[in-house]
Structures are given as structure tokens and as C-alpha cells.
From TrEMBL:
Transmembrane segments: none
SUPFAM superfamilies from the UniProt entry: alpha/beta-Hydrolases
Protein name: Pimeloyl-ACP methyl ester carboxylesterase
Residues of the AB hydrolase-1 domain: 131-403
Molecular function terms, GO-annotated: catalytic activity
Biased composition (Low complexity): 29-46
Region (Disordered): 29-105
PANTHER family in UniProt: AB HYDROLASE-1 DOMAIN-CONTAINING PROTEIN, HYDROLASE, ALPHA/BETA FOLD FAMILY PROTEIN
InterPro entries attached to this UniProt entry: AB_hydrolase, AB_hydrolase_1, AB_hydrolase_fold
Residue ranges with Gly residues bias: 65-77
């Protein structure tokens, strides 16, 4: 497919732009394009997991469509409780299909404002260490699917020895199967509070390693800034994947200067429309399906060799994120200042990992994190730059990400 002309991107990109400039995938996929991506539609993925044959029986559609949360702050019309659905339905969008790692336990955690957060666990509850993985903007816990399978196999399963860790995944508010909160609570401070709620409910005791991608990394950093007392005691390790401690206001997405200036002029209007005219914004998403798919590939991945069906998977995963949520969180992301997190993190093993072709949160943000941690006296920082990788490094080069997290877990456990 030929890239859209700048004029097309300028006209349509305004209403898509807030997602495009966010910290995860960068664009909002269309509702029409977000029909379930079954495993037989996704091509070969890293790890050489056999895919179901094309004539395999189709997974039945969940009652009421894609599952979600009801209750306080819930999304209208999405009242099906995901925990009532069979595992094969919950995993229907997963690129690994039947090769994915099912949850050993699922639960709902009440955030401080009553919003329900969907949590899934892999591994025994009595494991000596817990790893909590936090996803990024417009994504869901499904973005960790490769790590969930491979970390589950490496550290959360007894392979002739006691499991080393338990894995905890959750959907951030307004994303995935978790409920929405009020717009006033669409802040990184609230996301940090939500992480504390998950820790208190699911990991009330024992050491914890926190790993965050993009907005998930910002969540971890903000927690360190707000609760430095947790780091070095309860929190014994931190992984920061494709993230930033601040300074995203001038993000240029790798665009020429003229388009960057157009973006700056259009975004306030786009944000207003997303918040106050969501139906119209959703129509724009559907009408701009080709532009959205092109932008997902261009902004999220580094090379043309990425399987287009994996791009479809990402489109489908983020397609359920309401445009209002995208608009509400965008100012919080670009306005983040988590410099106060640096000193607490200097007391624990840290992994900083990024792709060298990340257009959404460029490598310079990770360089800065490492430099500031070193200046603060941190003695156990490992920095990994993955070649030929974009913002979705955890999907584009999952083996490298999994290996780095596994090594972080072992460093933390050895302390």
C-alpha cells in the first residue's frame, strides 16, 4: 500500500493524532477493523509456535460481543464479565492462538475511586517473587503475549525445580477489559495509585519486580516519585521498556517540520472532538481505516518486514480503546515529569530497554534515563538497545525483551 499523501494525513490525522502522538501504538484503530483477529489470520510469529490450521473451528463469539466491564465508571453496553467467558474466547485475539499462556487466576481489583481493574496471574501464589507487567497507551495486557508465554515457561513453571516467580498482568483503566473512570482521573498519578491497588490486592507480601512498557513505564516511574519508600524494600527491581520520565511535549514522530507544526495546530481541536463529539470521532476512525493501518505500521514498527497480520492484531487490540480515553490521557502523558523517580530507582536493579528506531519515544529518552540513574549513584543498571526495532519492541523482537526481563528477575532474586 502506498503511503498517504501529506494532505491526506493532515486532514484525517487531526482526529487520529492524539492516539498517534501517545506513548504506545500511536494511532486509534477503527472499530470496523477491530473485529476479532483469530490465530489463523496471524502469520508466523517469533518463537516458531505452530498456528491453528485454516480450517480449524472458529472460536464462538462472546455473548454481547467483545467483553468488558460494567459497574462504576464502566463502559455502556459492555457489561459481559470477562471472567465468565471460556479461556479460548478470552484468548481469541491472541497471535499465539492455542500456544498462548492461559491465566491461572483472574480477578477484579477495586481502584481507589471504585473503578474495576481486570487482573490475570500466571504461576503459583507461593512463588518467592512476583513480576507485575504494566502495558502502554491504547494497548492492553495482550501486548505482553509473547512475554507471558515465554516468561511463564522460564520462571513461572516448575521445570524440574520450584518456580522462580509469579507473573501478574492487568489492564489499565479505560483499556482492555478494565472499566473507565471519570475524565478527572485520567492522570498518570491515578495510574500509579491503580498500580498500588493491584499490588495491595494481589501481592500483599513478598518482593516485587515492576516492568512497564511506554505508559506502563511512566506508571512505574510515577509510583517511584510518589512512593519512594516502596523501592529497595517491597520493590526489588524495575524494567523500563520504551518509556520516558518526561519531555514528550516536542515529540515530532519523525515527521518533517511542516507536518509537526500542522500537528501542533490540529491536536487541540482533535482532543476537543474526541472528548465532546466521540460519535463523530469514531466515524472518522472508521472512515480512515487505511490511514490508521499505515500509521500503525509506520509509527509502531521499524521495518517493512513486519507481518501485516501482526499489524492487524495491534489494530484490533487497540480498536476497543474509546476515543474519549485516548483524548483524556494524552495531556497527562505529554505533561509527565517523573524526575523525582530517579533517586528511588537507584537503589534497585534496573533494566532500561528501547528500540533504536522508536519514533514515538525515541532512544534519547532512554539514554537520558540511564545517564540520570548513573548520576544518582545507581550501580546495577543494564541498558539494552534492540537494533531495527520500533516502539512495539515487545512484539517486534519479543525474544530479546523476554531475555532481558528474565535476566532482570534473576538479578533481583539474587539480591
Amino acid at each position: 500500500m502506498k503511503p498517504p499523501q501529506p494532505r491526506t494525513v493532515g486532514l484525517v490525522g487531526g482526529l487520529l493524532g492524539l492516539a498517534a502522538a501517545g506513548a504506545a501504538v500511536g494511532v486509534a484503530a477503527t472499530r470496523a477493523a477491530s473485529s476479532r483477529v483469530r490465530a489463523d489470520r496471524v502469520g508466523p510469529v517469533p518463537g516458531d509456535v505452530p498456528l491453528p490450521p485454516a480450517d480449524a473451528p472458529e472460536v464462538p463469539e462472546a455473548p454481547g460481543g467483545r467483553s468488558g466491564r460494567a459497574g462504576k465508571g464502566g463502559r455502556g453496553g459492555r457489561a459481559t464479565d470477562v471472567t465468565d467467558l471460556p479461556a479460548e474466547v478470552q484468548r481469541a485475539d491472541d497471535p499465539l492462538g492455542s500456544g498462548s499462556r492461559p491465566a491461572d487466576r483472574t480477578s477484579l481489583v477495586h481502584a481507589t475511586d471504585g473503578v474495576l481493574l481486570h487482573v490475570e496471574e500466571v504461576g503459583p501464589t507461593d512463588a518467592p517473587l512476583t513480576v507485575v507487567l504494566v502495558h502502554g497507551y491504547t494497548l492492553s495486557m495482550a501486548s505482553w503475549t509473547f512475554q507471558r508465554r515465554d516468561l511463564g515457561r522460564a520462571v513461572a513453571t516448575g521445570n524440574g525445580h520450584a518456580p522462580q516467580a509469579r507473573l501478574v498482568f492487568y489492564d489499565q483503566r479505560g483499556h482492555g477489559a478494565s472499566a473507565r473512570g471519570d475524565a478527572a482521573h485520567s492522570t498518570v498519578d491515578q495510574l500509579a495509585e491503580d498500580l498500588v491497588s493491584v499490588l495491595d490486592a494481589c501481592v500483599p507480601r513478598g518482593p516485587v519486580v515492576l516492568v512497564g512498557h511506554s505508559m506502563g513505564g511512566m506508571t512505574v516511574l510515577q509510583l517511584a516519585a510518589r512512593r519512594p519508600d516502596l523501592f529497595g524494600g517491597r520493590v526489588v527491581g524495575v524494567g523500563l521498556v520504551s518509556t520516558s520520565a518526561g519531555g514528550l511535549e516536542d515529540l515530532d514522530l519523525g515527521l518533517p517540520g511542516v507536518l509537526t507544526r500542522v500537528r501542533a495546530a490540529v491536536f487541540p481541536v482533535a482532543g476537543f472532538v474526541m472528548r465532546h463529539r466521540p460519535t463523530f470521532a469514531e466515524w472518522i476512525r472508521r472512515s480512515a481505516a487505511d490511514v490508521v493501518s499505515w500509521a500503525t505500521r509506520a509509527l509502531s514498527f521499524a521495518g517493512d518486514e513486519v507481518d501485516p497480520r501482526l499489524v492487524d492484531y495491534v489494530d484490533a487490540m487497540i480498536g476497543g480503546t474509546p476515543v474519549e480515553v485516548i483524548a483524556e490521557f494524552y495531556p497527562a502523558i505529554v505533561g509527565l515529569d517523573a524526575e523525582a523517580a530517579i533517586e528511588p530507582l537507584a537503589h534497585v536493579p534496573v533494566l532500561v530497554l528501547t528500540g533504536d528506531e522508536d519514533k514515538l519515544i525515541p532512544q534519547g529518552h532512554s539514554d537520558r534515563l540511564v545517564a540520570e540513574l548513573t548520576a544518582a549513584g545507581a550501580r546495577d543498571v543494564r541498558y539494552r538497545v534492540v537494533p531495527h526495532s520500533g516502539h512495539l519492541v515487545l512484539l517486534e523482537h519479543p525474544d530479546e525483551v523476554t531475555a532481558a526481563i528474565t535476566e532482570l528477575v534473576r538479578r533481583a532474586a539474587a539480591r
